[in-house]
Protein 1
Amino acid sequence: MDQRVSRLGRQSHHPETDLRTAPDKETEAASEAVSPPARTRPWRLYGATLAALIVLGAGGWWLYQQFIHVFVTDARVAADIVALSSRVPGWVTAVEVIEGDSVQKGRVLVRIDDRESRLLVQELDAQIVGISRRREEIEARIKLTDRQTASRIAAKEAAVRAAEAALAAAMAQRDLARQDNDRAEKLVPSGAITRARLDQTRAALETAKQQVLSAQADLENARAALAEAEAAREELTVLRTQLAELGPEEQRLRAQRERAALDLEDRTIAMPFDGVVDRTFVDAGEYITPGQRLLMVHDPEQVRVEANVKETDIRFFQPGKIVTITVDALPGRRFEGTVTRVGQAATSEFALLPNPNPSGNFTKITQRLPVRIAVRQDGGELKPGMMVELEARAGD
């Protein structure tokens, strides 16, 4: 009985509550349904309008850039990578650098065993010094021989003159003795002189004749001695010839010495310019042969951009044209370059496989021409092999 009363009490209570609060709920629901859309719809409209304007502006700017600019994506950084080799064979004693090192011009990169070359240079130096000593010796002998032969010839010439004078005196005595003997021969028959006197004149004449013969012999001896002294002076010609032969011999030795010095110098591989080391191919202790590649280097300040430009855009890449370079590896960085060279043939002309058209079916394909662009940089940010993009103004 009590439970039924309580249920009836609850049932009679809830309808009154629902009737009393229903209008309030409807009012709150209506206010919630009507008020928020009135506040949020303008902002959404403004946002959509702003987004549309941004998209249209970006699209218009992109179209504008496409119309007034030419973009090339088939480009990359290149440089003259130099392969350093050895002109001489030998054992590598030291490798002074590793890959990636920045090296100044003249710094030693690789050392090759130079002991034998150094000894050869020292030997040739000694031989050249020996040539100088031989020259000094021969010059001294020439001076000595010149003085000796000159004094000897002077003495022999004096002896010849004395012998000539003695011969002249002997001949005069002979002529006088002949005259005395002739007079005696005429006076003996008349008895003017004795037979003994005649014998004396005859003896004096014979003596005078012998003296003449002796004087002639002395003169011949003096002349022979003079000829011998003059012949001894011919030694000067021999010495001068030996001295002249030293010149070519010294020149030959100096040429050998320069060759040996060049061989010695080539056993030290130095950096030819300021640059960086890209690759090393040898280690200390290896035996290398002439022409073998040892290192690869390049100058980071002398880089360029090589691109393949469509033939339809090549008019915008004439020599001297300034282009803008962007690098994939350096977002936000822009470099300026100058077109220095435009290829005179399309890249397809150098393909290994030809492109014949025997069937007659033809599809026109835009060809590309190689273009080289010079670019200066500080710090070596652009490295060979990097991909870059080019931008050129179509209106310039």
Protein 2
Amino acid sequence: MSEILLVLLAGVAAGALNAVGGGGTFVALPALVAVGLSPVTANASSTVALAPGALAGAWVYRRQLAPVGTTSTGSLTAISVVGGGLGAGLVLLLPAVSFAAAVPWLLAFATLILAFGRRVSRAVGEATGRSVGMSSRAVLIAQFPLAVYGGYFGGAVGIIMLALWSIGLGLDTAASNPMRIAQLAAICLSASVLFLVASDALDSPLFLTTLLAGAVTGGFAGAHVALRLPARLLRGVVLTTAVTMTVLYFLRG
């Protein structure tokens, strides 16, 4: 019962974190490893379990969805689906060591961009006399490796997306959060289909369903909370999450 409770609470926390600011993988994955699942199985299981929670959050945010620059929502989602599926395929073929080693540095990079990205964007715009803005093609090209990474491991992929849109397009973190959740849902759902068919994620159905139930609850509740947070506070939550996860991963070595 203590293991089930741990997984349930981890699911709620992960779903809420993903809805509010990102970083749910860093709660769900260690919890599954702690109850005895192998890292690869835990990775697949956490992706499958967090997908409905991300979908629940995207449903709450459906009326707040706005295009990323001039990029259509449909095109961006299609790229996320394809990349997420490819990333899941790589999980089944390649070792995760290289990605695991890169995670702290990716987090640190994303955190710095989240903290200073909009200032850099404005400074470059003032220096060049024109606004900084990625083209629709550039946004889609950049989204593809992010989606592959999201399907492969997924830690902080939403945070990195916000960072990319912040520095590349000058978009506000709070305004971009609904689209972040929608793309996270697309990546997770695509990867989950392959994991359910080809991985051993279903070998521990009790842990999987418990984490899933917690994630849906946390994702739905977290999205409602995020809708009511002032933009400045939401940006603070996102940045605090990014800083915390970066420090924890560097300390973990």
